[in-house]
């Protein structure tokens, strides 16, 4: 029997490659046990001490008939037992191979780890042994071999011919792809599926070397505000990741990550003006990003949490809290204009993916920048049977419907409707650890219901835009301000808007946070990769709409310039309730 013990911290994954000789006719039994003490279930802010596990054949015998095995919530002292059946994997060179991923679900603490135990045997009765004399990590009589990979090894593991690729790196231009995580999240685990699918692209389909990376220094810091997170990401890109072989750069951001990467590119554009002269910006992609904030679409309880600072500076940023004390503008409003406006124009493609339904965190209007061809979406949504009413509810005219008596009547008649589903902090975190299981892994439900490029000329006129001055902006109510910001985001740029309809927890599925728990998002990632990296389509903007580039300034020259003081001036870190509670518990975590 193979017996492996290990421990995983936040953002860590252990991947096992199981090789089984083809002469083994029966199944191989596997059991994963969470060795953490059961009493630690209550210490949620130290963990949570939960694991996710899935298994899959490297080459399925029949892709359409294979049913994946996974468990999304293995709590302390919990177990997950499954089988590796020979009929599920194709025989290649006398061996059948499976991949087993053990993923940490720790969210709040960088110190604590989740202990686990993995047992592999040809006889399930071996699992009944309560004690083991010593850890055994070897093959079973040569018939079953297990190889372990950590996060650092997985990149090389999934690349076919990794050594050949490394030798050819200098001969090909490098395209750096920066992947950015959202709130209470991390790159290495939560964005792993995206990075794996990008690495799996056939090299023959590309004329460049894709270099995939993400900044891990913002883990457990997502309450510190868009500005703080964006500066840290920008410094990482310029000072640690850049080299002269990199000729192109793309950004993929999920949820809050879309705003963080927007701030980062604006910061780089002003403080390191040479960067985008040396590196061509190619793709700016957002997945369920709250460009227009969250405040209008959340419950009163969560509004009070944001107002009280429970989510720190980030919570205040997303509720339009005054960020620039000098001019009293929110950071969301400032990001919709220069310098982010000017550098976004330089990207070949700007694409946003937005959830039409089932996203209890970011509403469609915010992630889709408000303006959509609603009549076309309603027409396309007729292809969907169960969810048509929900989509119809969401894509009703934005402000008119919210302010009308029809909305009040609708809510009385349909009290259980998902329209503008309210969300609490508990629901947000709960969806990460206890996701709703997918109803059908291989569902043929139409996921992409709208895909269209929007130019600024496609947007109807508004009496609020452009504003006459600062006083008029300050006098706007929240809906008027959202409309103004949406127009600023659109000015002089084209946006490709892809509206998707996902089952279950759409917010965490649009980026496929976990391979099988969030499998309904596979089609979204496939669409993104095909249309941006394999067969990219250019979205041209009329020259008349392009605004001239602001002059780049060296770091030494920036202090006298107050135009972008909100962007460059460092602010004091302002953590939230979760961060303060976690820091207070760190001494306990070190003793665990």
From TrEMBL:
<dbReference type="InterPro" id="IPR044294">
    <property type="entry name" value="Lipase-like"/>
</dbReference>
<keyword id="KW-0442">Lipid degradation</keyword>
<comment type="similarity">
    <text>Belongs to the putative lipase ROG1 family.</text>
</comment>
<dbReference type="InterPro" id="IPR007751">
    <property type="entry name" value="DUF676_lipase-like"/>
</dbReference>
<keyword id="KW-0812">Transmembrane</keyword>
<dbReference type="InterPro" id="IPR029058">
    <property type="entry name" value="AB_hydrolase_fold"/>
</dbReference>
<keyword id="KW-1133">Transmembrane helix</keyword>
<feature type="domain" description="DUF676">
    <location>
        <begin position="171"/>
        <end position="366"/>
    </location>
</feature>
<feature type="transmembrane region" description="Helical">
    <location>
        <begin position="249"/>
        <end position="270"/>
    </location>
</feature>
<keyword id="KW-0443">Lipid metabolism</keyword>
<protein>
    <recommendedName>
        <fullName>DUF676 domain-containing protein</fullName>
    </recommendedName>
</protein>
<keyword id="KW-0472">Membrane</keyword>
<dbReference type="Pfam" id="PF05057">
    <property type="entry name" value="DUF676"/>
</dbReference>
<dbReference type="InterPro" id="IPR016445">
    <property type="entry name" value="Rog1_fam"/>
</dbReference>
<dbReference type="GO" id="GO:0016042">
    <property type="term" value="P:lipid catabolic process"/>
</dbReference>
<dbReference type="GO" id="GO:0047372">
    <property type="term" value="F:monoacylglycerol lipase activity"/>
</dbReference>
